[in-house]
Amino acid sequence: MAIAQSSPKEEQHQQCHGGRGGWVFQAIAMLVATAVTTQAAYRARREPWDLAFVLFSYADLGLLFLCLSVYERLPPPPLEEVQEGDSGDDGAAVRWRLKMVVWALSTALSVAFAWRVAAVMPAPAMKAALWGMTSTVAVAGFYLLFVYRPVTISSSEMDTCKHKQSSPKLDQMV
């Protein structure tokens, strides 16, 4: 009988990123979303646009959860900054595509909710403010996911999850 053993690097990754229990939260969240969607779809069954909105929101949220769960299971990217095309790492291409899909799904969900809320807004200025905020969120999300490059952190700074460096004063308070 073979026993699967994980490497120390995988164990550290699981400790720092929540281990294997994340599926429970995702399952509960999807069950709640399914129950709420079923109730909303039943109430909207005679209004085609309302029903389409409910079903689109549910499908978009489900796909968003799925993509985020796949993204979280990918191995972490290397610490060194590598020029595009030089790494030969298929994981980088998959991470980039998943980030693009996550951005598109979250933007579509934001736009759908803004569209529904704008339909009931009384003043044109309020509608403009709503669409301005939605556009700002979409553009800022794109910038943070694809344009912004944070400063590279050294491997000694990355070990803070493993060594739990905190101040003695904070330990006394806790």
From TrEMBL:
Membrane-spanning parts: 23-42, 49-71, 100-118, 130-148
Domain of life: Eukaryota
Stored Pfam families: DUF6490
Xref: InterPro entries: DUF6490
Keywords assigned: Membrane, Transmembrane, Transmembrane helix
Protein name, per record: Uncharacterized protein
